[in-house]
């Protein structure tokens, strides 16, 4: 059987947690990326209605005769298939809440990054605005290893990615949240993810579409290249 195909734009976006999961489970797949230019756009338009997708969109995931679109549907499917989901009712509730909250959490930063307020003058206001969300995550996680409990689930890749995006925006944003900080380190240092992070296939920038004032077409923050040092500091 041919390798699965994950199709998305050439950026992290909503596909990066799916990439994390696939690399974590050591699943060989084709990471098909459409560049954010006319060539990439034309390539996607050519493929869009010729792949047999029920709801043509990016990202898409093709595994044999199975063809999925929408990031949540894809990562849920992979979580269920590869035993990265909840084990009981409590974990189910935690997983579902963390899934939805991580979507809102990431969208909060993306919306700000695409707004006219995304300038240095608006940074303090934004960080103050999202502080309650970080406090909620810290309390929700508590002393658990992962979001659902002791075992990693698909939602951890979503939460980890959202936290990393905030860390890229403000390098020390996790300093006041010891549980989240330890969780972030725990996820980041998973051997399977470390292998992905150090590979040539990893594209850490851009994180958002081209129009974003942060994470889009601009230069990456200087601390993007300091990941190894960051890992050592918070272990």
The SS-based structural class is: alpha+beta
Radius of gyration: 18 Å
Principal-axis shape = globular
What percentage of the residues does DSSP assign to strands (E)?
Answer: 5-15%
What is the mean pLDDT?
A: 93
| Number of helices, counting only DSSP H or I runs of 4 residues or more | 9
Element pattern in H and E = EHEHEEHHHHHHH
Q: How many beta-strand segments?
A: 4
Terminal-residue CA separation = 40 Å
Low-pLDDT segments? 228-235
Q: Which percent bin holds the helix content?
A: 40-55%
Identify the quaternary structure here. single chain
Protein model, in words:
The protein has a 4-stranded mixed beta sheet. The model is unreliable at 228-235 (pLDDT under 50). It is of the alpha+beta class and 235 residues long. It is built from 9 helices and 4 strands. The protein has helices at 16-24, 38-48, 71-81, 89-113, 120-141, 154-169, 178-188, 191-197, 227-234, and strands spanning 5-9, 30-34, 60-63, 66-69. The protein is globular and about 50 Å long.
